[in-house]
Hints:
With 87 residues, the chain is of the alpha+beta class.
Amino acid sequence: PAFSGLCGFSFPEIRGRKPGxxxxxxxxxxxxxxxxxxxxxxxxxCETEMFNYHKxxxxxxxxxxxxxxxxxxxxxxxxxxxxxxxx
Length: 87
């Protein structure tokens, strides 16, 4: 619900899709996208601030914190991302 409230997309609309394909747009900073891609590639945590886009196409600035999730054996099982809208 918090994610939907922030960006306007419902869970069925985002299920199975990469967040960047929905949330990034013309003003999304390429260097921030590169930071996130590298963290996902290496299974590392990261933080950045960037422009994302609402479902209606309007942009908003967010602080994004991403952390890897690991199973009991230490294997990467996914990621958790937290976004906080900035003024």
